Amino acid sequence: MKPQTTPNKFGGPASRETRLQIVQPIKSIDELASFCKRRGFVFPGSELYGGLSGFWDYGPLGVELKNKIKADWWKKFVQDRDDVVGIDGAIVNNPNIWIASGHVGSFADVLVDCKRCGVKHRADVLINDVLGIPADSMAIEQMKEIIEKNNIRCPACKKGELTEPRRFNLLFKTHVGAVEGEKSTAYLRGETCQTIFVNFKNVLDTARMKLPFGIAQAGKAFRNEIAPRDFLFRSREFEQMELEFFVHPQKLNDCPEFEKIAKKKVLVLTASEQVKKSQKVTEMTFGELAEKVYVKSKWHAYWLFQHYNWFLELGISPENLRLREHTKDELSHYAVATFDIEYNFPFGWKELGGQADRGQFDLTQHAKFSKKDLSCFDEETKQRFIPYVAAEPSQGVDRAFLALLTEAYTVDGDRIVLKLKPKLAPVQVAVFPLLRNDAKLLKFAQGVHKGIKEKFITHYEESGNIGKSYRRQDEIGTPACITVDFDSLKGKDVTVRDRDTMKQKRVKVKELIEYLEKILQSK
After folding, report:
1. Which DSSP letter does residue 336 get?
2. Considering only Cβ atoms within 10 Å of each terminal Cβ, which end of the chain, N or C, has fewer?
């Protein structure tokens, strides 16, 4: 039974106090995917031709939100800092880059095929789904033993036996030049950070940076995933925002800003608890992360906080975030230590972003394979050294997009509300004339719209049904709606409705920009 409500003069519920309160989060990732298509955030890639698994197209609202996420990250981590600069590297690189980085030899998942229906499955995901056992760090032999011991069958056809597990390289191959062959083979980049490393010397020489400093990049990356799944979470084409922070290897704890963040608290799932098959989460400070050597340096702890705090600033609830330390067995070939920032998605706690201490691996490898000197000179000791990557905040744009939508999507009584921060909302202010067939009303409403659109991202609509217009704007996250009625023509004022409280206030047109700025900044 629907709650009884008292309608206001525009046909919508009068206030939050007059309604039955039933606030619910999103129930499933499929529900969110359906919402994103219906409201123009995300469409299945190549849908007109039946689609292509693992590829997605962003619609009119989705591209606005996605661009705002990227812009906010770039402002916080690059433009607002004096110790970070940016680059934009090519997507296709000399294949030797990926040999030196270890991707050609090590960038692989474990694959099994169904002998009956031919469907391919990622072995670690299959074991986790069927048995609830984390298998990311398992050796192939261990996966094979578990699949055989538990008689795991193909989940697609429910009957088929599975082939023996084997490694499958995730790099997308392509060819450069007119003739295809061994010598023309190249790869779409599997991560954005490698062009940072190969341009390290160029940046050092041209940007006049001194250690410690960072180089950031945002752009496309590609991975030939065996089993794309969970909407945007695991796809084959995606965007990354990455930053490599270089320090002197003898000065890993010379972090002047560390004390400012040392007492900030966070939930942590440590490697030792995972080894014990426990999911016990401990609250600790970022200072304790460094003191107890969960991270290898104060710089790593400092950047972990910056990355984690960015999500809090965007509106993610702290109870839905935690850090997870990588166990020794699952550390990447380049990593000294790694922490994932995990989010509580509808399908469980999963990696939202990650941060590795990459040590001196990458610059050492590229110096070795390129035969070029990538060292720096220490004026104090008069010796050369390879810079140390103490922290690598690595963030998928699509996963940030997915988490922010999941967090914001709310079923509030009888309406869906996308409670995005105003700075992220695809539309900040919507303007509606009460009727669509009155020339004076339309002219006044168009004037109001024109007067505010230089300050805000706006939407103008002549629907004639204000209640439905409010609901549409609630669903796409518009923080404020303006209604122009016949009283507006006399009093030169409008009704401003707040998305979250649904409270309405008459505001003079001449005071409208100031009032909107105030309510948008308060959210």
Report:
1. S
2. N
Give per-residue pLDDT as tens, 14-39: 444 434 445 667 779 999 999 999 99
Helices (H), 286-419: 286-291, 298-313, 361-370, 397-408
- Look up residue 219 and give its two tokens: 């752009």
Q: Give dist(CA 260, CA 226) in Å, integer.
A: 43
pLDDT at 383: 95
The C-alpha atoms of residue 473 and residue 479 are separated, in whole angstroms, by 8
SS3 265: strand
Residue at token pair 């004037």: 447
What is the per-residue pLDDT across 311-323, written as a single tens digit (0 to 9) for each? 999 999 999 999 9
| Rounded-to-integer distance, Cα 422 and Cα 317, Å | 16
- pTM given for the model: 0.90
Cβ-based burial of 345 (10 A; exposed 0-12, middle 13-18, buried ≥19): buried
User: Smallest Cα–Cα separation from 238: which of 351, 362, 96?
Assistant: 351
The alpha carbon dihedral of 306, 311, 314, 317 has a sign of negative
Neighbours of 365 (CB within 10 A): 19
User: What are residue 507's DSSP bridge partners?
Assistant: 494
The whole-angstrom distance between residue 165's C-alpha and the CA centroid of its chain comes to: 31
CA 119, CA 276: separation in Å to the nearest integer?
34
